[in-house]
Amino acid sequence: MEFVRLISTAEIAKHNKPDDCWIVVEDEVWDVAEFQAEHPGGTALILQYAGCDATKAYARYHSPGLIRSTLSLSCFIGNLDRSTISPTWAQEPHGNASSDNSNPTQARPDNEKPPLHSIINSYDFEQVAASTASKKTYAFYSTAATDCWTRDMNESMYKRIWFRPRILRDVAHIDTSTNILGHRVNVPLFICPTGLAKMIHPEAEMALGRAAKSQGIIEILSTVASHPIEDIVAQTPDHPFFLQLYVNRDRSKTEQLLAKANKLGLKAIFLTVDAAGRGKRESDERLVVDEIVVNPVTGERANTDKKGGGLTRMMGSYIDQSLVWKDIAWIRSLTDMPIVLKGITTAADAKLAMQHRVDGILLLNHGGRNLDYSPPSILLLLEMHKQCPEIFDQMEVYVDGGIRRGGDIVKVLCLGATAVGIGRSFLYALNYGTEGAELLVEILKDEMESVMKLLGIKDLSECHPGLVNTADVDHLVPLTDEHPYAKWRPKPRL
Fold first, then answer.
1. Helical residues (DSSP H) of 346-458, grouped into ranges
2. Which one of 94, 96, 260, 388 is separated from 155 by 20 to 30 angstroms, measured CA to CA?
């Protein structure tokens, strides 16, 4: 049997400098000195726990296995010798707001939430999250960029599209199933990747993955998932998963991630193309200083400064802002998986996507969280029809943003989309764990079936534009790439 060295607390405490840094996680001692350089968001939190036990802070956002899959075995020093633990050692490092037993980022216990059976629509999940999740968690999930106008218009635009139902049709049996990239799903819906899912439920993507399998839909796993993607996939064998990809500034990291995705048998890559910068999310930035949260991606501590206390500003610093169209060929050289561009917001870029022969596009504006006053997602779908209708014959088109009802899903399908993605509502439903996410899918499916019967269609192949009236929003959709003022150019500055 292999010998594992026991390390005393006195020995661990000596390694508390940037160039000589050990931390303890779940009684395992790790050398993280070199790993700090790979932390795109900085090293503040790691250094705060240098020479100390970081288990409590780590466990709020990560599964125990994540550190083992991230660090090489050479970084493992040994196990904590628990016989050397003193009262001083057991204390949280000075200045950490989590030094009490409370967790300001976690939702309240189940017995303080309304019973799950009382939830009857997606809005109910949000209302419960607003009142039972921590202020920091709800602010991060619900906020959007600057005036939140795009976020709000994403939803309100659906209310301006009317149905045109047909009568006396045989709708005794309704089928909501379809195919997404060749994979059969019970509902034309996938769970969109989101950051910091563990803030509202400790099982995070693990719980969502189980719900996806039980309901027959697909979860897109985030590059920055709270749990190792291999653990998420392993718990639901033979069920398809997609991977959302942020390209890392260190391209070798992206190559390693894609190699892992290939080995795990993931089925598609959703390449995020709309995150060259980060929006100013003011509700997030107004967070108070005494609620300290740690970035689970980088380990950076989100403190309040003159610009506010937001999580947004410390997320995504690792994303490669030099990503361009030619890099699609590089990604394609690393995987045989279908590639979908996540974040198309103009027909002009959709045409370029066709030229680069990707397998699909996801029309969305990042939930209004990046560039406020970007077009609402459903208007982007109409823009495809006006400026490049041929795209619907060349690739699958998906829509994400503002979808709250089964009727919204039907409207999108009538206008040519293959399926829809939902992000925020699944985070709110995750407040109840796997069962909450399962119920959300059931609610949306039931609403879809009701709408389909009343529209006079029995399956999704019968969806067509004639079943909706878009006249109230058609004038908001540009007919060409050119602006009426395109011939005007500003005078050169002297």
1. 347-355, 377-387, 391-394, 406-414, 424-429, 434-455
2. 388
Tokens of 187: 């509902």
Query: One digit per residue, pLDDT tens: the chain, 494 residues?
Result: 456 788 898 888 888 888 889 888 888 898 988 886 665 445 666 787 888 888 877 776 677 677 777 787 888 888 898 888 887 777 777 545 444 344 555 566 665 899 999 999 999 999 999 999 998 899 889 988 888 889 999 999 999 999 999 999 999 999 999 999 999 999 999 999 987 899 999 999 999 999 999 999 999 999 989 999 999 999 999 999 999 999 999 999 999 999 999 999 999 999 999 988 776 767 666 665 344 444 444 444 555 555 544 555 555 678 899 999 999 999 999 999 999 999 999 999 999 999 999 999 999 998 888 899 999 999 999 999 999 999 999 999 999 999 999 999 999 999 999 999 999 999 999 999 999 999 999 999 999 999 999 999 999 999 999 999 999 999 999 999 888 887 777 777 76
The residues that bridge with 270 in the sheet, in sequence order, are: 244, 340
Q: Which amino acid is at 325?
A: W
Residue pointed to by tokens 């397998």: 359
How many helices (H) does the chain have, and how many strands (E)? 20, 20
Say how many C-beta atoms besides its own lie within 10 A of residue 459's C-beta. Answer: 14
Token representation of residue 20: 């000589």
Strands 339-344 and 301-302: unpaired
Hey, which residues does 342 pair with through a beta bridge? Answer: 272, 362
Rounded to an integer, what distance in angstroms lies between the CA atom of residue 187 and that of residue 164?
22
Rg (CA), the chain: 24
Query: 322 is written with which tokens?
Result: 């030099």
C-beta separation of 145 from 467 below 8 A = no
The count of other CB atoms within 10 Å of the CB of residue 80 is 22
What's the length of the chain?
A: 494
Please identify every residue annotated as catalytic.
246, 274, 366
Cβ-Cβ contacts under 8 Å for 231 (sequence gap 6 or more): 63, 65, 206
